[in-house]
Amino acid sequence: MSAGEQQIPPWLQEQVGRLQQLQQNLQSIMMQKQHLESEHLETERALEALQKANDDDTVYKTAGSILVKSTKTVLVSELQEKKELANTRLTVLGKQEIRIKENLKEAEAKIREMLRGPAGQSGQPKTDTPK
Questions:
Q1: What start-end ranges are recorded for coiled-coil regions in this protein (predicted)?
Q2: pLDDT, tens only, 25-56
Q3: Domain locations in the chain?
Q4: How far apart are the two ends of the chain, measured CA to CA in Å?
Q5: How far, in Å, CA of 116 to CA of 6, rounded?
Q6: What is the pLDDT of residues 58-87, one digit of tens each?
């Protein structure tokens, strides 16, 4: 085999690059989703602990590296809002995850089809563009 035959054709390089980009996007979404799920769980635990407190108990919230005095009502409201926001973001990320997984399947199928190519031809992809 000559050196030219061992090189990956540009059309295949493009598809592999697209596949790698989709994989990176999926990994990023999965990491964001995992972080949000952790944050959501932490918020739920804080809400549960706060619900057990009496209305007149002194409560604090963190603001960076300090604690700030607050009221139970205010903290419950803030935590519920934070929980709703996390739920919304998780829904969006879930939809993005599904869409990227579908795109990944399509890209993998396209690469397999390109590699198979029509029997007896030079291995060029089936394209709509005339030569």
A1: 12-53
A2: 999 999 999 999 999 999 999 999 999 999 88
A3: 10-116
A4: 25
A5: 16
A6: 999 999 999 999 999 999 999 999 999 999
Q: SS3 sequence, 104-116?
A: HHHHHHHHHHHHH
Rounded distance between C-alpha atoms, residue 7 and residue 127, angstroms: 20
Nearest 10 degrees: Cα torsion 64, 70, 76, 78:
-50
Q: Name the architecture of domain 10-116.
A: Orthogonal Bundle (1.10)
| DSSP code for 129 | S
Question: And the tokens for 84?
Answer: 């709703």
Across the range 85-109, mean pLDDT stands at 96
CA 115 centroid distance within chain = 29
Asked if 126 contacts 113 with a C-beta cutoff of 8 angstroms, the reply is yes
Q: Phi/psi class of residue 71: alpha, beta or left (left: φ > 0; alpha: ψ in -120 to 50)?
A: beta
